[in-house]
Amino acid sequence: MQFVEEIVVDEFLPTVRSMLATALRERGLTQSEVAQVLGISQSAVSKYAHGDVTTNDRIAGDERIEALVEELADGLASGDVTPVRALIEIEVLVRELETGGDVLAQLHEEAVPELADHGSSFRVHDPENDLRTSERVLSSLRRGLRILENASGFASLIPAVGSNLVACTPDADDIDDVAGVPGRIFDVKGQATVPTDPEFGVSEHVATILLASRRHDAPVSAAINIAYSPELLDRLVESGHTAAEFDESNDIVSSVGAAVENEPEATVLYQTGRMGIEPLIYVLGSDAESVADDVRSLL
Questions:
Q1: For the whole model, what pTM was predicted?
Q2: Structurally, what CATH architecture does the domain formed by 130-296 represent?
Q3: Strands 222-227 and 243-245
């Protein structure tokens, strides 16, 4: 595993610093002045000047990098560009070069060939790219599951059908955008058991509850189902939750939608059950950790 930041540190920075040091020396700056401008030692400047630092020819030969180095060298030498501004402009260029097809993205894909499977639009530092968004959701879900696994007595809250902690992407539209535990969480001899790592598209029931709430503008991104009891419901309300009842014997999506419309602030949904339908409480929240914390507070 190699992160793109490692390529920036190991390949990009030595190359660009060497190019800048050379360009500044060509513009008449002393080694001491170059060191001060670049924020490095004079001995480092000397190494750059004598070619003692390994550089990357592909980075050095990129036209945008060459152009920026010349522009910054002119500005730094004349005093028209501050070191802070130069740093920002280099940082901006780094992010551009991480875009699929550009030199840093190419070097990263060569180091980690699996990245090529995600297409030319993949960009590691773009917080909105699909892969990074999905990984954030899964990471949050894993943390929430650890909270529950380590919560003494959580198994007593697991209903007969099992529990599932789910979380969704910000623009979730269907079940494939919701991650959960394959096979659900079960009580095995008094111990909450998470059978495997969370995945997207594996929860139908709890995911449907979450998505139905979101479609009626509920500001929630995670949910869990637990066993129903009036006492548990009262404790959730006392802790600050707003509860709304829905009828699971009817169409779930429309029933949940009606409940949320009647109680727009609802973060607890419940149904009291009937023949063939187990009574359940659904706790909803902004992320998996907060939902798990809410459930742990009931123990």
A1: 0.64
A2: 3-Layer(aba) Sandwich (3.40)
A3: unpaired
